[in-house]
Amino acid sequence: AVSLRALADARGLLFGAAVNHTLFDPNEPDYARTLNRHFNAVVAENAMKWAGLHNNREAFAFGFADAIVDTAVKNGQTVRGHTLVWHDSLPPWVYTIQTREELLRAMQDHVTGVVTHFRGRVRMWDVVNEAVSDAPGHPLRSSPFLNLIGPDFIDEAFRAAHAADPDAKLYYNDYNTDGLNGKSDAVYELVRGMLVRGVPIHGVGFQAHLNTDFDVRGAQVQANLQRFRDLGLDVQMTEVDVQLRPGRPEAGELARQAAVYRDLLRTCLSVKCAGFVTWGVTDFNSWRAGGRPLIFDDVYDPKPAFAALAQELAPP
Ligand code: G3I
């Protein structure tokens, strides 16, 4: 079958997948084979999160993340880094900190240590993930960082990342922000303010955890992505998956899933997006496994969504 990687390369599009080092296993040869044949970029699904790299305050544990990065570099794949500062997947020691100064220092040390370690190998980072809440008015989300440091934790995280690797592209990343809506308005104001303050931010990631009812046109994804492009920022779809709705005939759902993938990629290409990343490779290993949201099924066979992306990526 056609290689999505070759088609994406020809367009200069970063086409990636979230990976789990547990599946780099001789007993799972189809995993590495599929990843290498169809994707020119990878992101660690969990291995680069704070709890993954820095569970022990005194020492980083880079082993699993290094394995992912080394394999990607060997295979000529670009690596997205995910994620430096997030309210989730934090180790217990972070919650024991009680002063602004100590947490600010700890956050800066974490960002500096991780970005420095991967400098030259990880080309872009989700510096701050999901800092905007879903509550009415979309204020910043409660987290140790907001509550103890204050809203400037975001600027400070980006400044520390930029100082550690001035060549890395630095992203703000969030979900339910794909279309024009109150939450994407809040993200827009957040990053616009950062640019005004001279904070080193280069892009915005739109996670795109969707389901088959999502209407890419109706949600006005293009207009939304375009307004961020008009700020001079790169945009990427960073965690794409499209869940099937339960209790509906399978063939229709797979066709709707393919259409959502197609519409989203078409829209992404239309604004010259920098990347399109699916949140996993095969349905069985997805965080939403029951929803079969990816482009390869449980036995790594390409689904209708694969064909739709191949068609969309094909040369005009
Ligand atoms: O590794 C431990 C294992 O040792 C333990 O036995 C097991 C018991 O629960 O947990 C394992 O860790 C789990 C980890 O996934 C690896 O499977 C965590 O509990 C679980 O919380 C973690 O879930 C991840 C989640 O983020 C939280 O970090 C999902 O795999 C991952 O897909 C999901 O990804 C997020 C993005 O980072 C941000 N955007 C939303 C997206 C989906 O929620």
TrEMBL record:
Its EC number is 3.2.1.8. Keywords: Carbohydrate metabolism, Glycosidase, Hydrolase, Polysaccharide degradation, Signal, Xylan degradation. The keyword Hydrolase applies. Residues 1-312 form the GH10 domain. It comes from the Bacteria. It catalyses: Endohydrolysis of (1->4)-beta-D-xylosidic linkages in xylans. The keyword Zinc-finger does not apply. Belongs to the glycosyl hydrolase 10 (cellulase F) family. This is Beta-xylanase. It comes from Deinococcus caeni.
